[in-house]
Amino acid sequence: MNGVELLIAISLGVGLAAASGFRIFIPPFVYGAAARLDYLPSAIPTSGLQDWMASDIGLVVLGLATIIEIIAYYVPWMDNLLDTIASPAAMLSGVLLMSSSLGDSDPLLRWGLSIIAGGSVSGVVQGSTVALRAVSTATTGGLGNPVVSTAEAGACIICTILAVLLPIIALILVILGIGYTGRWLLKRRQVKKNHPSQVEIP
Description:
Elements: H1 3-22, H2 26-36, H3 48-53, H4 56-72, H5 78-101, H6 107-140, H7 145-165, H8 167-194
Helix pairs in contact: 1-2, 1-5, 1-6, 1-7, 1-8, 2-4, 2-7, 5-6, 6-8, 7-8
């Protein structure tokens, strides 16, 4: 890959990794469907994982998993339980999707970027969703969690579609979003440290 192709591949991977922080199965399902319909940027190389996601069995498995995941987040209290499981799974998904977007490029570059960028981005986004759900649970007794779940699913779909169709724009938005999220998490931690009983929603 030349410089421009590498930038597009990295941008796609980062965008998909960020989307994985919201939901685990929506990004690979949409990514596989886009590959199947030939909507991926021409600069994106193929890979074994991408081929599986675009296959009949891959789309069926990911589609069913997506439906189950979306429904489960609307079940009271199960959403918080899923967050416990989803945190490491989201990071793994971010790593794998980033790796898939880089195809068969140099293994050191591919896995280095996948672990550092893909895993970190998905982890930060997932961490923010866990924190936001904790605030919602504490302030509304869980009644506001369906609204949070809907917003997360919508953000995941938008982020995934942007990553596939406009990867450079997705990269810019992810960088801006990560910056804001980092500030919000630090601010919330500081408030919690100074006032343990106080919950703040920015």
